[in-house]
Design brief:
The chain has about 300 residues and is of the alpha+beta class. Helix content is about 35%, strand content about 30%. Strands 3, 4, 5, 6, 7, 8 and 9 form a seven-stranded mixed beta sheet that branches.
């Protein structure tokens, strides 16, 4: 985003909209908290959450993401060398106080969601005016899921968010182990074709760009770029279901291949269902994968 230029076009020409930082940190926090699910894929549970007199901290935003993983969001107006370590300080508190978090989730979202909290992949999202190369290096050294997100305001009506670094936590399944698990599950009942197709989908989604993280849940596998952009369900006997964040209204739906599942219950997130049965189906779906990746 540091190199991004935004222009307002008129009949007489173009005017550059100069990017700027917030006047105060609270401007960023208040805006994102008001639209957190849309902007970060996180449901807000509490703002300025106190960690108690002993720990002596206050978490800027505490939430739960699309995969029911706990999420801590910390904000800084500009560049702050302590933002990552401050967030990790709160992450350590959170992992030692799981019951407090479950009670908060239960009070805000109900017992069913509280019972599904994904403790294997807690997230730290740092939103700041900028980050140093030391921040980027630090997130790669820690065994936690950390996203560094740079913001800029453009005029009074636009805000831009750019993922500077995104690292999966060490508790998530390594890529080879994940692929072996998918292959074994498919091979048990569905044969070699489903094994190859599941592996090919995994390669295609991970290869869309840098910073794609994968989160394992029993019911699906989520591919993230800050927010989920694809969810892959375990193979059925003759097909693989992929749910994408692409807008179904923008897609020419093909019976037996794509389906609008807006408002319909299913595992994972996304309103566009893609049904894959053959490698040819995967080739047809690649543009949809890219559109969903871009939308996230």
């Amino acid at each position: 985003m540091s190199g991004l230029k935004l222009f307002h076009t008129t009949k007489s020409g173009v005017t550059e909209i100069t990017p700027r930082l917030a006047e105060v940190e609270a401007d960023v926090q208040n805006l994102i908290e008001a639209h957190m699910e849309t902007m970060l894929g996180v449901r807000l549970l509490a703002s300025e959450y106190s960690t108690g007199p002993v720990h002596g901290g206050r978490i800027d935003s505490l939430g739960i993401d699309e995969n029911n993983a706990p999420a801590i969001v910390e904000y800084k107006r500009g560049t702050d060398a302590g933002v990552v370590h401050q967030g990790l300080f709160y992450m350590a508190w959170l992992m030692d106080h799981k019951d407090a978090f479950r009670h908060l989730v239960r009070d805000r979202l109900g017992a069913a969601v509280a019972a599904q909290v994904l403790w294997s992949a807690p997230r730290l999202i740092c939103v700041a005016g900028d980050f140093t190369r030391y921040d980027v290096h630090a997130v790669r050294e820690h065994r936690r899921s950390i996203d560094l997100v740079r913001y800029r305001f453009f005029g009074n009506e636009h805000i831009g968010l750019e993922t500077v670094a995104s690292v999966s936590g060490g508790t998530q399944a390594p890529r080879r182990a994940r692929r072996q698990a998918v292959a074994q599950a498919a091979a048990d009942v569905r044969g070699a074709s489903m094994v190859e197709l599941a592996n090919a989908v995994d390669e295609a989604l991970l290869g869309l760009g840098d910073g794609v993280n994968c989160v394992e849940r029993k019911q699906y596998r989520a591919y993230q770029r800050l927010r989920n952009f694809a969810c892959v369900c375990p193979p059925q006997r003759s097909k693989l279901l992929v749910y994408l964040k692409a807008d179904p209204k923008e897609v020419d739906l093909v019976p037996g291949f794509t389906r609008d599942v807006t408002g319909l219950g299913h595992h994972g997130t996304g309103d566009l269902e893609v049904q894959l049965r053959t490698p040819r189906d995967l080739e047809r779906a690649l543009d949809l994968f890219r559109a969903s990746y871009a939308a996230a």
